[in-house]
Design brief:
Helix content is 80%, strand content 0%. It contains four helices and no strands.
């Protein structure tokens, strides 16, 4: 049997019409999976930032309460130790000094110490993709 150009063209169009949707769905599924992975990573990062923010807020609240309302030492120590893994290594000594001087002497951190602490906190809470 002799194949002429119209039959071979019809066969080619038929094969392409079968293969094209399969390829399209494979490509779409691949990129949907990539998007879901990116969304999941972003969600995890947002949860981590929220957790760090809550710890920093709790620490600052305990520092303030220690002076104003004679807050408990245990609460401030608990907030400090919960925050410790998230404090940059270079700043740990500074946070330790502030915490323990607040507990032992009931001294208020100076304005420059508070500004330095807030700059460290703001750097830590900056979104880093």
């Amino acid at each position: 049997m002799k194949l002429d150009s119209t039959i071979s063209l019809a066969l080619l169009v038929t094969v392409c019409s079968i293969i094209a949707p399969v390829l399209t769905s494979l490509i779409n599924n691949h990129y949907m999976l990539k998007n879901k992975k990116i969304d999941y990573e972003r969600e995890v990062l947002n949860e981590q930032l929220l957790h760090k923010r809550q710890l920093f807020e709790s620490f600052l609240k305990c520092i303030g309460n220690a002076h104003r309302y004679n807050g408990s030492k245990e609460e401030l120590l608990g907030a400090y130790y919960a925050l410790l893994p998230y404090i940059p290594h270079a700043e740990r000594h500074f946070f330790k000094d502030i915490t323990f001087s607040t507990i032992s002497n009931k001294t208020v951190p100076t304005l420059s110490e508070m500004e330095h602490m807030l700059s460290v906190i703001s750097k830590e809470l900056t979104y880093k993709p």
